[in-house]
Amino acid sequence: MVLFISIEMILQENNNTKIQLKQWYKNPAGQYFKKIIIHELESTRDLYQGRHTLFCGSSEYKKLFQKTKTGTFFSIDEDVLISSANLAKKLPFEDNSHDVIILSHGLEYTHNPYLLMREIDRIATDDATIVVIGFNKYSLWSLVKIFSSKPPWNINFLSPYIIKEWFKLLEYKTNYQKTFGLLPYLGKSIASFLSNISFLHKIIRNKFGGITIFTYRKRVIPLTPQKVVFNKTYKVSNLAKNNI
């Protein structure tokens, strides 16, 4: 009974976070960064093409990935991710069933993101691509978390370096990584000013932006058959004489 109550509390906590994040995306700040992310995802579409796509997490970018007319498209919400990672349950998909998997703030909703990544790896094909959209722990945005509990500051920001190491342990390689928004949204005029400072974009913001997009590709080790070559000349040794 205690376990049931704790599970209910976890789901209730993350459900509130889910609602608050959707509200943030409707605000000017969320709309501003959403346009940037959508533009970047559209320009890098060739990195995540596949026949069987699974979208996990916040639905803000679902329509972008849903445009494909080939193959299958499935979407699961945050509650399924929460129960799968926190309760050690499997996602409702077979092994090696999807070649493109999108985690839109999916890792940030769970209390154990590594377990969720293991489950994602289970359903990923041998040449699968994983797209991760999230908030960067090592950014100036994290400083605001000290003073504010409003969304998105109440969400668990994750370290992109830790996520990269987790995927490395699961035999994935990084295909693409970029961060956006050196500073939180401070108004349209300031955002426009910062966008004109090109050196900040290339040097600082590309590593310490508040929002991240990473794509990972599962490593496939090719099995190259080796042709057996026999020596044409054979040497036959003399048999030892039996002295008995």
What are the key terms here?
Rossmann fold; 244 residues; 19% strand; 6-stranded mixed beta sheet; alpha/beta; 6 strands; 9 helices
Description:
The protein is an alpha/beta fold. The protein has helices at residues 2-26, 28-43, 62-66, 78-86, 113-123, 141-144, 160-169, 188-195, 198-208, and strands at residues 52-57, 72-76, 98-104, 124-135, 172-180, 211-218. A six-stranded mixed beta sheet has the order 2-1-3-4-6-5, with helices on both faces. Helix 1 packs antiparallel against helix 4. The longest helix has 25 residues, at 2-26. The chain is globular.
Short characterization:
The chain is an alpha/beta fold. The protein has nine helices and six strands; from the N terminus they run ααβαβαβαβααβααβ. The chain has a six-stranded mixed β-sheet with strand order 2-1-3-4-6-5, with helices on both faces.
The proportion of residues in beta strands is 15-25%
Mean pLDDT over the residues: 78
H/I helix tally: 9
For the record, what is the CATH homologous superfamily label?
Vaccinia Virus protein VP39
Q: Please give the CATH class.
A: Alpha Beta
Distance between the termini: 84 Å
Number of strands: 6
Structural class: alpha/beta
The largest sheet is: 6 strands, mixed
The main sheet orders its strands as 2-1-3-4-6-5
- For the record, the CATH architecture stands as 3-Layer(aba) Sandwich
Shape, principal axes of CA atoms: globular
Classify the fold: give the CATH topology.
Rossmann fold
- Low-pLDDT stretches are 1-12
Which H/E pattern describes the elements?
Answer: HHEHEHEHEHHEHHE
Whole-number count of domains: 1
Could you estimate the helical fraction of the residues in percent? 40-55%
Radius of gyration: 24 Å
